[in-house]
Write a structure and sequence with these properties.
The protein has 322 residues and is α+β, with helices and mostly antiparallel strands. The chain has helices at residues 4-9, 59-69, 146-156, 163-171; strands spanning 20-23, 26-30, 43-47, 50-53, 95-99, 115-119, 234-240, 255-256, 278-282, 301-305, 313-314, 318-320.
Length: 322
């Protein structure tokens, strides 16, 4: 019979940050030279120790924040017309972008084929006014813009991770591996993350036919015990977008706790609404597919305007230090 003393001796130490995992800092190869140009160059980076949420923030957790604070998300508010000169009146309503699968093959450079600007879509109603969160309380919260996730982090006594912290955590101790679990997308045929299965954006070969988010923790954790770092939802980071990250080729001169570019540099003037600053998203989502978006990797990154919420973007938080 196992004694109480034996059980206590081998018990896991109680975390000072429930629901979070401590990541000891270190040096690693950040980025990749093997995929998209914005991931390059591979460079040495060093991060300090930090705690990070084991899973993305769920609808249940976000609802707790909203009940306590009365927070109204960006998607639940009508855009200010002065900030969007020339916008059509129907676009100046509380709305968010919702993925809608197509009925068949479409050109993969036409994002409008599967994204719908949907009035009434928000974190409470992820598919629009007629939808709700029944069965989704333990799924990642979506339709959250930058102001929403920043407010949640402050309320929770946490912060948003830097891109470097996020990528270091996502790698799970496997420096320079393709994926968070190694160098094979489906090792031994095993599906390791909620990513697209089938021909994008219309064919779904997933068990149960789910086109969207999955319950957090439904797929294997990485080497650090973190779930859903790859797939399920893209995750906001603290960094302003920069397509040309600083580099160093020597581990002795690793960049320490880099913070990306500047706010003004993060805009894209050639795009509609290009005056809107952009943050870095990490991790890919349930819409990433080998034929369309191979961003289901720790090194992958994407620029997201801070005012825009979508049905495949969520977040998790960190606490820095020991």
């Amino acid at each position: 019979m196992v004694s109480v003393a034996h059980a206590l001796k081998h018990a896991r130490p109680k975390s000072p940050h429930p629901g979070m995992i401590r990541i000891a800092g270190g040096r690693f190869h950040m980025g990749s030279d093997r995929h998209y140009p914005e991931e390059a160059p591979t460079r040495w980076v060093e991060v300090g120790s930090f705690w990070i949420d084991e899973t993305p923030v769920t609808n249940r957790e976000f609802a707790h924040f909203v009940r306590e604070t009365g927070w109204i998300t960006v998607a639940e508010q009508a855009p200010e017309p002065s900030q969007y000169p020339g916008a059509l009146p129907e676009m100046l309503t509380p709305s968010s972008l919702v993925f809608v699968p197509t009925s068949g093959p479409v050109p993969l450079d036409d994002l409008h084929a599967w994204w719908r600007y949907t009035p009434g879509a928000n974190w409470r109603r992820p598919l629009g006014p007629e939808s709700n969160l029944v069965g989704l309380w333990d799924h990642p919260v979506v339709h959250v813009a930058w102001a929403d996730v920043a407010a949640y982090a402050v309320w929770a006594g946490k912060e948003l991770p830097t891109e470097a912290e996020w990528e270091f955590a996502a790698r799970g101790g496997l420096d320079d591996a393709e994926f968070a679990w190694g160098d094979e997308l489906h090792p031994g045929g095993r599906v390791m993350a909620n990513t697209w299965q089938g021909r994008f954006p219309f064919e779904n070969r997933k068990r149960g036919g789910n086109f969207r988010t999955s319950r957090v923790g439904a797929f294997p954790a990485n080497g650090y015990g973190l779930c859903d770092m790859i797939g399920n939802v893209w995750e906001w980071t603290q960094d302003w977008w920069s397509a040309s990250p600083a580099k160093t080729t020597s581990p002795c001169c690793a960049l320490r706790n880099p913070l990306g570019g500047g706010e003004e540099e993060s805009t894209e003037p050639s795009c509609p609404g290009g005056h809107i600053p952009r943050k870095v998203l990490k991790g890919g989502s349930h819409l990433c597919a080998p034929s369309y978006c191979r961003r289901y990797r720790p090194a992958a990154r994407h620029a997201q305007p801070i005012d825009t919420s979508m049905s495949h973007i969520g977040f998790r938080c960190v606490v820095r230090g020991n």
